[in-house]
Amino acid sequence: MTRLAARGAAWLSLLLITLAFAGPFLWVLIASVQPGANLAAKPTFAFSLDNFRAVLNWETVFLPLINSIVISGATAVLTVIVSGLAAYPLSRYQLRYRRHFMLTLLFTTGLPVTAIMVPVYAMFFRFNLYGSVPAMVLFLAASSLPFSIWMMKTFMDGVPVSLEEAAWVDGAGWVRSLTSVVGPLMAPGIAVVAIFVFVGQWGNFFAPFVLLDSPEKQPAAVTIFTFFSQHGQVAYGELAAFSILYTTPAVVLYVAVNKYLASSFSFAGSVKG
Amino acid sequence: MTVTTTAPSPRVTGSPVRRPSRRGVLRWLVPLGPALLLMAIFMAGPILWNVYIAFTNETLTGSASVNSQFVGVANFVRLFGDANFLNSFALTFVFVIGSAVIGQNTLGLIIALLQRGRGRVTRSVVNGVVIAAWVVPEVVAAVCWFSFLAEEGTLNTVLGLSQEWLYTAPMVAVVLANIWRGTAFSMLVYSAALSEVPADLVEAAAVDGAGPWRRLLHVTLPLIRRSIMANLMLITLQTLASFGLIYALTGGGPGTASQTTPLYMYEQAFRYFEIGYGSAIALVMLVIGALFSLVYLRLIKVEDVA
């Protein structure tokens, strides 16, 4: 009987936790398909896609989403190439300071990027890079590198060196070895790193908010904020619809790499015993 | 975590296999070069630059924007006499302890524990909702919480109250929102850690007559204590630097009631263009972050990973 009670209590707690976590989503989901929605999340049966129709125009949704895709995509591609190259010697060669280097990378991932924004902004201003999307992408890639190199190296360590030997016999150097043997074999790992970086930058608000000057360059994270920060005259249904359009890619990509995440979490707490 | 990294040298002795060119420094410098260059220019550079401008009176407007001067520790003297900074520091402390150390950490552990032995469907539903809160972009998380806590929002509708929570209890609001947002991380770390706890140890304790509480306190928790410490360090680091969620939700207000240090830094550096002073605040944050990061490095078994 007490076992049953314990099971019941556990079940009930999980139910309450689930409801509490679902609560804040309710309004966004309901309001997006309600005509004339305001902040009261009152369930009604009126259903319309008017809110989506209203925001699906160039300035509100398409341009910011394209900006987001360009910024996040360029950062992800650059990060994957640079971290893939960097991982090769770290994974394959006996380097004297490798351990120190890897530890420094891990240490860097802990530093608050928020704090780095002030000097980055000052630097961008001084060197006339303020407002430059390519320069910001370089910064975003640099800040994604420490963790990406870690992940890349871990995935690369999983590819046995013996598989490269045939290529060496054929006289391939490290570049061929990396691009035609190691790369294809760790393609899933590369995809995980790319998606990880992409999703991270997709949600990044602070960097573009501070480093980009004009609204036409801003990604969705910033335009939705300016849309929402003018509380009061906001069309709430449209805000909800925009939120959903902006969130969906992140969720889809997350689901795609979900099964690889479990292993990175035993890494995050990578502590046994 | 896995695999030792040392590339095994070709095992067949006398085999004709020649490894790719091993010509000195270049063999590692060329592939590592781009990464080193990017990190030197855009990470190490700004940090060093930050150390320098924190000791100047650099601004973006006015005379100090043209020729800033070295002002020694003046920014730091000002900082520790600045009531707004001290306020922000206290609020950051409340925010980190409340939302990360107590909220995310405890709730993450509780959910991970409750999920053990439950069916697949239950687990996926709970995981799905908790992780969704973590996957949505932070500005969308702010939209969710803004509407949830608004005067006509979901919470008041459910409770039958009429409160503008973001004004009457801004810190409670941002702490709750951040617990909601960050718990998934701790939950995933603890699920991974708990799955490594050997079942026979827990069963042995049960056979010896230990109830669920004692098994948890004396068997399970001690076995995952390093994961607990590592998780605490990581979520503290994430929460210390939290900007977007608070900024979008309350803007630090009303007044300075929820102005944590990153928001105060933002105000000084980007609203008043006091770059030198803002850098001094950033430097304090960097030093605190570095200390936590070092503790994290000490905690994890790096022999396994590096």
TrEMBL record, chain A:
Protein name (database record): Multiple sugar transport system permease protein
Membrane-spanning segments: 64-88, 100-124, 130-150, 185-203, 239-257
Lineage: superkingdom: Bacteria
Family: Belongs to the binding-protein-dependent transport system permease family.
Keyword annotations from UniProtKB, A to Z: Cell membrane, Membrane, Sugar transport, Transmembrane, Transmembrane helix, Transport
Keyword Transport included in the entry's annotation: yes
Source organism of the structure: Nonomuraea africana
Location of the ABC transmembrane type-1 domain: 65-257
Compartments reported by the entry: Cell membrane
Membrane topology per record: Multi-pass membrane protein
Pfam families, per database record: BPD_transp_1
Main localization category: membrane
From TrEMBL, chain B:
Stretches assigned to the ABC transmembrane type-1 domain: 90-296
Chain ranges passing through the membrane: 28-49, 89-114, 126-148, 168-190, 228-249, 275-297
Family: Belongs to the binding-protein-dependent transport system permease family.
First-listed, main subcellular location of the protein, grouped into a coarse class: membrane
Keyword annotations from UniProtKB, A to Z: Cell membrane, Membrane, Sugar transport, Transmembrane, Transmembrane helix, Transport
Lineage, highest ranks first: Bacteria, Bacillati, Actinomycetota, Actinomycetes, Streptosporangiales
Subcellular location: Cell membrane
UniProt keyword Cell membrane present: yes
Membrane topology reported for the UniProt record: Multi-pass membrane protein
Alphabetized InterPro entries for the sequence: MetI-like, MetI-like_sf
Protein name: Multiple sugar transport system permease protein
UniProt cross-references to Pfam families, sorted A to Z: BPD_transp_1
